[in-house]
What does this fold into?
Amino acid sequence: MPIIESSIQRVRLSQKQHDRNEPQRSAYRSAVKRFEKAAAAGSSDLESLYREASAAIDHAYSKGLIKKNKASRQKSRLAKRVK
It folds into this structure.
């Protein structure tokens, strides 16, 4: 544990940010994995799962969890698998 007051505040702040970001990151990853699992199995509801995964990627980007290029790259790869 840090001794300097500003370091203590940074630890507290980073923990709070982590606690806020982790469920969002988990939901985004789960949506993508759900789509990829269904695509590998040849499921028929790929279109709806693609929309959910795409929305999750957009939400993660808007919250700053992932960068713009990563979001567009992932959406592009998912769209390719839908076709």
